[in-house]
Design a protein that fits this description.
With about 475 residues, this protein is mainly alpha-helical. It has 15 helices and 12 strands.
Length: about 475
């Protein structure tokens, strides 16, 4: 949160901090940057009201009447647009907000009970397993999405809390790889939304979507390519190599993906996809595996040979199947095929990780994350030591000190406002240099040295208000 303090402004270059409107007194202009923050806050309130009306079965006319009613505080943003640009512009803005709200409400399902929530997660689970995840980036995104689905199942709904470090440890990947999956596949594809960024000891709040917005296919990682485009006359590249649907067991993938054997330089994500597909339906040919696991032909052959070298997969005629204890990482020589000198049955996932020199990858990642958490918490503690307590009014009531709740910016009368964000002292009628209005117009900064967050200020205000009401 940015604060606007009552301090002299330096001369800004021409074109910066241009004035966009007059202040409440009608004389002093308000800088564009302050007006923009208030406009964004007003738009969020308007969008929330529109979603509530759409969810309740209301209409566009009802929303328009509600927002443009002069006594409705929630419609202040739309009313300001009407005053500045006219009723037509305000109604056009409300129409756009209503269209977005209707789309958002229609694309979500209302969860009425815990049983309904479990059914909703089960349907999402099936959708994830039948969606093709193309390429290494798509397979990594599946691991991240499956980690968030585990968190959602624990929370009992699509809305859940998880930090980036927790998700990276659950998916068995690095934190940077996790962020790449967020930004390139999951967020653009509508699979995952971050509702609130975590702070302190709390993780971020996430919501799982259905992936309706965009396909899971990822854009090219380079601006150009050395390959020539396909020629339809020569029947080159007539269709994608993999089928439009997949069939994997994501539960098996979620149980295995944190092992060191499936790290980047180990078996990798392609082995997870092959194992997940063969666990759902054994005895598949390579062509069938290409469709069910969403891997290319070359990747399928290369991954099957790796699994066969550890005795985790066996080939019978033209079909492939998993070994009896393959899900435990224990390999076995095929009974129908002659023993091969290249086949060395694995004795567990740790043995496979040792062969690929990836042993300790997960432990090193957890130790790094633990050190980062400790450093972050230490920084928060050092910051809190430099914070000063908010100056509040204290009265003596029946022999005990009672805090008088400090006023909030949205509760301050207009006659208390002064130019440049300053506040008039109601007792003396002069500007109080230790008080100023926040850029969003929601709070009073008690002292310029106060660096408390918005949530901390609200908590202090609520506590003081409770004491004041109990004393009254």
């Amino acid at each position: 949160m940015r604060w606007f303090e009552a301090s002299p402004r330096r001369a800004a270059p021409k074109g910066q901090n241009s004035y966009s409107k007059l202040g409440a007194d009608g004389r002093n202009p308000v800088p564009r940057e302050e007006h923009q923050g208030a406009a964004e806050h007003g738009h969020r309130i308007t969008a929330a009201i529109a979603c509530h009306v759409a969810r309740a079965g209301g209409t566009l006319d009802q929303l328009t009447h509600l927002l443009l009613h002069p006594e409705h505080e929630g419609g202040r943003h739309a009313q300001n647009i009407a005053l500045r640009s006219g009723q037509a512009r305000a109604r056009d803005y409300i129409h756009r907000v209503w269209a977005s709200a209707s789309t958002a409400v229609s694309s979500t399902a209302a969860v009425e009970s815990r049983h309904h929530a479990h059914e909703d997660l089960a349907a999402l689970h099936d959708r994830i397993e039948t969606t093709p995840w193309h390429g290494e980036r798509g397979r990594t995104a599946l691991r991240v999405l499956r980690a968030h689905l585990n968190f959602a199942e624990t929370a009992g709904g699509r809305r859940h809390a998880a930090s980036e470090r927790q998700a990276a440890e659950e998916a068995g990947i690095s934190r940077q790889t996790l962020r790449n999956a967020y930004e390139t596949v999951l967020k653009p594809g509508g699979w995952l939304r971050r509702l609130r960024v975590g702070h302190g000891h709390e993780g971020s709040t996430w919501y799982l979507g259905d992936g309706h917005e965009h396909p899971t296919g990822t854009p090219m990682s380079h601006n150009g390519t050395t390959q020539f485009p396909p020629d339809p006359d020569l029947e080159e590249w007539p269709s994608h190599e993999t089928a439009p649907t997949a069939d994997i067991d994501s539960t098996v993938i979620s149980h295995l993906m944190a092992h060191d054997a499936f790290a980047h330089h180990g078996l990798g994500s392609s082995a997870l996809m092959i194992i997940g597909a063969l666990h759902v339906r054994p005895s598949q040919t390579v062509n069938e595996l290409i469709a069910t696991s969403s891997v290319s032909r070359a990747t399928a052959y290369r991954t099957l040979q790796r699994l066969a070298a550890h005795g985790l997969a066996h080939q019978t005629s033209r079909t492939w199947s998993l070994a009896p204890r393959a899900l435990e990482g224990i390999g076995q020589t095929g009974t129908d095929a002659a023993p091969s000198p290249k086949t060395l049955p694995a004795r567990g996932w740790d043995d496979i990780a040792h062969r690929y020199s990836t042993t300790g990858t997960a432990a090193h990642r957890k130790a790094l994350h633990a050190a980062e958490r400790a450093a972050y918490r230490q920084a928060l503690e050092q910051l809190s030591e430099h914070r000063t307590k908010a100056m509040v009014m204290v009265i003596v009531h029946n022999g005990r000190h009672v805090l008088v709740p400090t006023p909030r910016a949205d509760e301050i009368p207009p006659e208390w406002h002064a130019p440049s964000g300053a506040v008039l002292n109601p007792t003396t009628g002069r500007i109080d240099p230790e008080w100023s209005v926040a850029t969003d117009g929601r709070l009073i900064l008690i002292t310029p040295a106060d660096q408390r967050t918005y949530d901390e200020l609200v908590t202090a205000h609520t506590q003081a208000l409770a004491e004041w009401e109990s004393a009254a």
